[in-house]
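Posting here for the record, re: magnesium ion.
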Amino acid sequence: MTQMLNIALAGNPNAGKTTMFNALTGARQSVGNYPGVTVEKRVGFVTHNGLKLNVVDLPGTYSLTAYSQEELVARDYLVKERPQVVIDIVDANSLDRNLYLGVQFMELGIPLVLALNMMDEVRKSGKGIDTRKLSRLLDMPVVETVARAGVGKTRLLEEAVAYAEARGGSWKPLTISYGPDLDPALLDMAALIEQEKFLTDLYPARWLALKFLEGDIQIRNLAETVGGVGRKLSEIVQKTEKHCRATLDTTPEAIIADYRYGFIASVTKQVVTTETDQQDRIAVSDKIDRVLTHRILGPSLMLGVLYGMFLVTFTIGDIPMGWVESFFAWLGGAAAELLPEGLLRSMVVDGIIGGVGGVLGFVPLIMIMFLGISFLEDSGYMARMAYMMDRVLRIFGLHGCSVMPFIVSGGIPGGCAVPGVMGTRTLRSPKEKLATLLTLPFMPCGAKVPVFLLLGAAFFEGAAAQVLFWITIGSWITALLVSWVLRNTVIRGEATPFVMELPPYRLPTLKGVCIHTWERAWQYIKKAGTIILAISILIWAAMTFPTLPQEKTDAIREQREAVQIRLNSVEEPDQAPLQAEITRLENRAAEAALKNSFAGRIGAGLESITRWAGFDWRVNVALVGGFAAKEVIVSTLGTVYSLGAVDAEDTEGLSKRLQKDPHWNRLRAVSLIIFVMLYAPCFVTVVAMSRESTWKWALFSVAYTTILAFSLSVAVYQVGQMLWS
Ligand code: GDP
Ligand code: MG
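Prediction output follows.
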């Protein structure tokens, strides 16, 4: 008989959950997301004594209160899927802190097996844990493990299966006393909940009462929807809160935490012996911290680390990115050879290979960046960085963990918002993550920089570097201010407490870091094959259709052929001007085709609005194209100003041209710089944003940034005109 058993792995971040999951399931696992959110879901299979086990690696959490998506997801999974047994992986080095989550499982009552992981480190530190006594005190199986070496995994499975069978799916909630101030309220609330059957199909009544008192947002929101009982519960909570404030000058939440830790201490005191060496290990970490989080030295070192990582990402990343680019250039060339001239060739070469290739070009960058982030995270330094930045960013409604995404997106000019968007996964609170997502596209990414350099060289001769510096400062200020506004309007909400504790420093393993990096990169590659392919074709079509009428293209071709014949008949020294003539004709053809295309018509149509900011149809087409990728701005300007193929590096000719153009002046340049600095993120970023939040928010970001950019450009242009003319 084959029977299916569901096992969930839970625990604090960094307790070794994923390592244990990998040890248990080997290669038989799959990674996806929980429905509706971007929290990773890993599922694996094991066969044990003819029994089929379905193992889920839950997201790492410190508690079961709905402070973050991870906690919500973990909790929803437990109460809705009702796995037959939960294995709580705890870092036995800090048993007290790790049991905080464990106690909440016990209060929920779900069958629980405790895995005391990292026992190698515990033993090395000379500490002892009386496992048998712990098991007796907590009334559950306790197994010692070393996940990294696979030690104890078989016993863990045996115990889990035996315990699941013994419990037969029954839940036995543990009741902890929360003292004379809270216990009466808890009893009242539990009675009310029981009576009205509010969510009691999912949770024990007392557990719901506790979460209500702890300020759990999900439960409180749900209670609001059921009317009467919700109001009565809120009344009790308010009374209790007032009472706690008056008597103990604290919150129910804090009291609950105190009693839980009290319960834990009463257990661990009896089972853990000789803490001395553990103290040493912490002492070492403390000593390192005295330097690394020093008030002045700390931030300077952090800037150094950030800058170093940035340099490594973008200089080392350049090499494989070059390979990927050459590969797609080769592929484009090969396709151009194979396909006959015409629309199909244009679509395959410019639309598909150009679009998807441009996106896959980011893969090396993303991999190197995630490698760095995983390393900083596993080593424990990331937590310190977040800790140091938290106080500043908090003022603007952001979080310490927002720093990295900002830097990567171009906080130091030359980054890229796509890996920046993916880097926001380290943010645990959805609202802070959203604020970070929505403001990081303001950073001067590597594709915008050529535009700034071009305009700087043309209109601020000799001061291009200063221009870029002030643009960077302006981008940061805008991002912080906008974030502050967003957090006080559309994404209003409490700042999440900085719950992340500073873990002791640890040397990360190469294997772990590599696995994480690859998984993230693979999700990105898969995406390039689907949605991005479709959008690339759309944008190509907008810049191609409708095509020029036949007689126009024929006329241009005839002119070109005439020059070509002359070219063939003259000697070497006279060829150059004719060659230039051909280039000019080709560009004129490209310009005419572009002006006639859908994108070109949009550009011309927008002129009546954009002239308020000083943009003509040429600039408009470039800006519309810039939505595909900001690199397109410079290359399109090159096309419409008939200067031959302009690549991002070679902007000198174009800048001379702009300088001489009577339409252009310094004021228009400033207006355009402001617009490019702030307007809609490129579509790859938008797609990435939709994956990290929702399409609604991704589109919102396109709309609000464009409106903001345009308003500022108009203001500057109009005021400037008043002052200087
Ligand atoms: P998760 O966040 O709970 O999934 O933790 P991981 O599985 O990613 O592990 C965090 C770190 O602890 C990694 O660097 C692991 O190599 C390391 N680790 C996991 N289990 C053990 C163990 O039993 N002993 C030691 N010394 N390190 C471990
Ligand atoms: Mg993990």
